[in-house]
Amino acid sequence: MKKIIALIFAFSLQIFAQNIADTEPKTVESVNLQKYIGVWYEFAKIPNRFQNDCAKNITATYSLQEDGNIKVVNRCVEEDGEVNEAEGVALIVDKLNNTKLEVSFVSFLGWRPFWGDYWIIGLDENYKWAIVGHPERKYGWILSRTKSISNETKEQIFSILVEQGYNPKDFEISIQE
Question: Is it true that domain 26-173 has CATH number 2.40.128.20?
Fold first, then answer.
């Protein structure tokens, strides 16, 4: 009997997880861009090809431009000690709440053919940390205003990731010195 109950429970969890994965993550209610801009340290990320060379000290710096867009400067230190910097722009897609953006780091004579979704799916009320996601969960970042976060905060963030259909084990912790 216990085995049957365990099987039913496991099957129910699988269906629940599948239902979450079939829907897009939900963004936070709203983002105050004046509070969001500034320097963020990458605490963790889902590994991706465009950050393969980054070994440590990964940061993202956001600043508002006069045209209403956001300047994005991503920096990291590579294995050989070289500083890698990528400059891009973020457009606010959801202008009512500022929770959905598109980011581009590729420009040909001012034309930007490639854009990536940047959804803010978790945010500390005091803007101490943020979770950035993707509608298909291909990418994910945990950002912090400080180089490290407490275990309590990490557990809170991981709980939000699970609620949003992400697996926290897919995230690798970034090295910050």
Answer: yes
